[in-house]
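<tokenise_the_fold>
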Amino acid sequence: MGLEKFLEQARSRWMVGDDSADSVAVSTRVRLARNLADYPFPGRAIPAQLEEIEQKIRRWWNTGGLKPLGPTKYIAIKDTAKIERLALAEKHLISPELARQNFGGVLLNEDESVSVMINEEDHLRIQSLLPGSQPQEAWVQASQVDDLFDASFGYAWSSQTGYLTCCPTNVGTGMRASVMLHLPGLTFSGQLPLVLRTISKVGIMVRGMFGEGSEALGNLYQVSNQITLGQKEEDIIEALNRVTEQVISQEKEARQRVAQADEMALRDKVWRGYGVLANARLLTAAEAMEYASLLRLGMDLNYLEGLSSGLFQELLVFSQPRYLQKIFERALSPRGRDEKRADLIRELGKMN
């Protein structure tokens, strides 16, 4: 298969981009943690019980349990090469934790906007992943999938607390809703630390691109709800949406201030980043993220034209170490990854 054909098939819905979407928001995720009532949680279940759960869900899926979603596929972790699993994690379709296991699986719909992890930290992790800032739409989609499972499986539930989960911080709604934001303006202006401290005081947490404990590479930050107990799902979505809109507004104002302070310097920074991506022969993952951030900023400020709205998202995924090895179908040394990353990014530029 040619490179262009492979990359076309490898794009998830959230990676495609949307010219009508807000330029600051990259993607939205809503994840629901659920457990089956008749089994111990994965952390205490024996292998035979985990296997029984997986087979039970697969039989249900095979008989049309997810038919309303259209075409779907099941990927068994134990039958999947480690590099493939880690590539799925870099694409945000499964967690790094599930990728490191030798059991469990994931159900994916055709455009990969829905993924259901099986036997990760909880029996089920139902995820909706959409482009831009769409908390309400992602919640509706995740809830519809949740209803399909709920109609056939009994959930672990308490009338006092709500859904029971392995981690106490997920008890209640079991919901984690997040929006990934690109915040170079606040970073360059020095305002970001203050904004992040303010967000944390209203029950919203901030994480890096790959969630808890990850670095904020490429000026990307995930803002998500911190509280799952004692709130309705609609309240969580409304609060996240409100905070997200405020941060987006602050980011846009910060970009304008940075541009007004010295627009030529900002244009120079953007074009230098573009020049590196277009011509480099060696690129580390951190460098690719840094320059991809400048590329996205230049596109948003109309300094760069003629590039697709999804190019930034493609760079975020395709330049990751494991995904590179998946694309080129072989193990690569660190130096080899830096070389192939530069090659791939130049090709992506040609395609756009």
Remarks:
- The longest strand covers residues 25-34.
